[in-house]
Design goal:
Layout: H1 6-20, E1 24-26, E2 29-31, E3 55-59, H2 62-72, E4 78-82, E5 87-91, E6 104-108, H3 114-121, E7 127-128, H4 129-138, E8 143-145, H5 148-160, E9 165-171, E10 177-183, E11 191-197, E12 200-206, E13 213-225, E14 228-235, H6 238-257, E15 261-263
Parallel strand pairs: 3-6, 4-15
Antiparallel strand pairs: 1-2, 4-5, 5-6, 7-14, 8-12, 9-10, 10-11, 12-13, 13-14
Helix pairs in contact: 2-6, 4-5
Amino acid sequence: MPNPNPETEARAIAALAAAGQQPLVVEGVPVLILPEGYRLHQMDHLAAAPARKKGNTVLNDLASLIDVVKEQKTPSTHLYGTLNPPSFVAVFNDTHDAAGWGDHKASYTPPVSPEWLNWIKFNGTKQDQAALAQFIEDNVDDVVEPEGALLLEICRTLQAKKDVNFVSHTRASDGSVAFTYDEDVKGSSPVRGGMAIPEQFIIGIPVFENGDRWRVTVRLRYRLAGGQLTMWYELVRPHKVIEVAVKDIREKLAAGTELHVLNGTPPAVRG
C-alpha cells in the first residue's frame, strides 16, 4: 500500500477545516481564515433581492437629481457640491451616526450650454471688423442691451465699410466710439465719413444647458493701424458669472431636497 503524500494530506485537512469553520468576529467584522489558494465566491445572484442598495445613478438635469434624492434620502444622506469643476453628488449611505459604505450615490455634472461655449470660443480673438460683425449678427438673439435691431444695424454698417481707410477715432460722451474714415468713390476724390460703435453691450445666455440666462457684459475692443480696423470683444469677469450660476444650482438643490449642500467631494467608498 503506497504511503500517503504528506503535502496532499495536509491540503485535504486544511480544506476540511476551512469548510467547517465558523466566521470569527473581529471588531464587529466577520472574518474567515482560509488556506492559500482559496477564493471567496459571493452568491448574491441567488438571493431574491440585493442585500443593500449601491451604485451611482448619473442624472442629466437638476430636476432629476432632486427627484432621486427625495425618493432615496435617508438620515445618512449627504449632498456634496464643487465649483471647479461644477459637480453635485448625493451619497445616500454616507457616514452619519454610524459608519456607512458610501457606495449608494446619485450625481449630476451640469453640461455647459452651447451659447456659453460659443461666446467663450472667440473671447479675446482679434478679427477684422466684418468677421466680428458677422459673429454678432449671427448671435444677435443673445443680445439684451442695446436692442438687437440697433446692434444689427451697426454690424451691417461695419460689414459695408470693410474696405474704407480709417483715419481716427474719438470717445463720445455717451460711451460710444466715433470712427472717421475715408472711402474711395469711383471717379472722384475720397469721401470722408464716420460711424459710431458702442463701447459695450450686454448678452443674456445660460451658463449650463437648460439653465437660467445670466447677464454678461461684453466690451468691444479695437486697434487702428495703417488705416485698417482690427476688433475683438472681451467678456467681463466670466468666472464670476459661472460662480453665480453654480450657486443658483446649489440653492435650488438644497431647497428642492430640504438638505444642506456641503462644499466639497464625498470620501472614497469604504471597504
